[in-house]
Design goal:
The chain is of the alpha/beta class. The protein has 11 helices and 8 strands. The longest helix is centred in the last third of the chain and has 20 residues, at 211-230.
Length: 262
């Protein structure tokens, strides 16, 4: 793990920080407004509730700005990019900017559609706090493979945290880079898991001023919850439900025993 000379940080520090973030989530119950795709809404809402946050989901043009203005963080997911969501996204980001709120961009499937990739590039110019994406989406937006140095450059150029999901998640703000190896292989067989994970990042941003630490906390908490859940699950279906239970019950001891951060 690389860190700024002025901000030395160790694995135990990051695990403690993640536990503190989870505790603040449960205490403060931040509101997270999610503009997300239709297949992800229910699971995303349930995961946020299990973590301690309060979700909202409207994309109605006449009220989305009001919902964002009364929220603590915003998720913008472009998974089902219909006309209503395109309009709501601009209104929501403007409201977040006006109120100084952190927001997360989840550029789902930008590798599959040039129009979507162009829309996402325009959103990157609107200064998201965190960009959470997979390797294919990274290559489509950054123009190259997701090597650690490329992730750092992309984050530095955006002045944002970049979180790359995969077998090992990578989180960089351009100067600090961490890898989180927690999780379970069945997570890739559950629809909305990545979308819900991005919403959890937004929730953590609402209670943690350092976006890099908040993003690490979200990935670590979800990964450890999935590992705990897998013990009592027989496949992806039961894992999806068990993750909610494990997340609801997760504690500092679980994080320290299972964390694999480097």
């Amino acid at each position: 793990m690389r860190a700024r000379d002025s901000d030395p940080v160790g694995t135990s520090d990051l695990v403690d920080a993640a536990a503190d973030v989870l505790a603040r989530l449960r205490e403060r119950r931040p509101r997270v407004h999610c503009i997300t795709n239709t297949v992800a809404q229910t699971y995303t809402a349930n995961l946020l509730l299990a973590a301690g946050a309060i979700p909202s989901m409207t994309i109605a043009a006449d009220e989305v700005a009001a919902f964002v203005s009364s929220a603590d963080a915003l998720l913008v997911n472009v998974g089902t990019l219909d006309d209503s969501r395109r309009a709501a996204i601009g209104l929501a980001i403007d409201a977040a900017a006006d109120n100084g709120l952190p927001w997360v961009l989840d550029p789902v499937f930008v590798d599959r559609s040039p129009d979507r990739a162009g829309f996402a590039q325009a959103l990157l110019a609107m200064r998201p706090t965190v960009v959470r994406l997979n390797p294919a989406e990274f290559s489509a937006l950054a123009g190259g493979p997701p090597e650690p140095a490329a992730i750092d450059r992309f984050a530095s150029g955006l002045h944002a945290v970049v979180a790359l999901s995969g077998e090992t998640d990578q989180v960089s703000d351009g100067a600090r880079h961490a890898a989180i190896a927690n999780g379970h292989r069945w997570m890739t067989r559950i629809t909305a898991m990545g979308c819900a994970g991005a919403a959890l990042v937004a929730a953590c941003l609402a209670v943690e001023d350092d976006p890099w630490r908040a993003t690490i906390a979200a990935h670590l908490v979800l990964g450890v919850a999935a590992e705990r859940a897998a013990v009592v699950s027989s496949g992806p279906g039961s894992l999806a439900t068990s993750i909610l239970d494990a997340l609801f019950d997760l504690d500092r001891k679980d994080l320290h025993e299972r964390a694999r951060v480097s």
